[in-house]
Amino acid sequence: MVKVVILGQGYVGSIFAIGVERIKKGEVECYGVPLGNELPIKIEDIEIVGSYDVDKSKIGKTVYEVAKNYWNGEIPETLKNITIRKGIHLRSLRNLPIEAEGLEDEMTLKEAVEKIVEEWKELKPDVIVNTCTTEAFTPFGSKEELIKAIEENNKDRLTATQVYAYAAALYAKEVGGAAFVNTIPTLIANDPAYVELAKECNLVIFGDDGATGATPLTADVLAHLAQRNRYVKDIVQFNIGGNTDFLALTDKERNKSKEFTKSSIVKDILGYDAPHFIKPTGYLEPLGDKKFISMHIEYISFNGAVDELIINGRINDSPALAGLIVDLVRLGKMAVDKKEFGTVYPVNAFYMKNPGPKDMPNIPRIIAYEKLRMWAGLKPRWF
Fold this sequence. Notes:
383 residues; four-stranded mixed sheet; 11 strands
């Protein structure tokens, strides 16, 4: 059994919860879950025990009620048992048409962390999954600087994700081990402050920024070209979507956070920094959760021939990430059982746009996939 707490009950958190419960009921197959039911921990072993949000209209409601905002079909009755609790926002919803309400509005950050840790000790999660809205952030670099910001109640320095990850470390220390899955660009697995703290506190960190849609596809196309010694002249890749996360990315600082994690693949895979424009570029409300992706890559082949690849697609954004989370929560429990505290590159390299720890490269996903399978104790698939 693996018990899970969701941070951010929006599109991704809700589709994850609905999908897991539908798989458990036998209503749908586990398509979109890379490792399917190959792991020793089965999808049927996942139990969602808690949820947090800062949207005033969601706090106090059940996941069942809120999930209706994101899914037109029948909602599993089991989600009526999970009530959404008040979390931390730290300006994460600024400029969005949402009334935010967080614990830090009524207490210090230290008190908010203590409250959350006590609630988690009651809920007993093995894995805490962060699906909050993309934030503008500054990494810490040192554990001491992070602890000082919490102790001094420096709300301008911290983001919601950074506080949640700190709380997860304290919780893990109290209970002997837990995992924190960071699916957004805020650096946690890539911030030495958190990795050091995690090792000391029996916390596993997976991150940063779940790799769905165009980014892993771009990585594989670039690897294909590099393996054939074709010189990439330039790359264009962009996404336009209509969900809340794309609306949040209209904020310049948030967009910058996402741009960094998406662009880091180029030099890592090619070995040189080809001119590129790789950004989440736009919000168009009618697109909803089904984003438009486009990619254009120009490269030089034998005898100076210049070729181009043009790829367009429409991808359901939240299900793509939610399917990865189904694996990540089970792998998180496995990592805790293995006592691999800190961060785990073989997991991050496959599932994340910016795989921790710091300075570790993006690698072609087919290679990352085999490294992942080896780490999980599964038979190689392609080799």
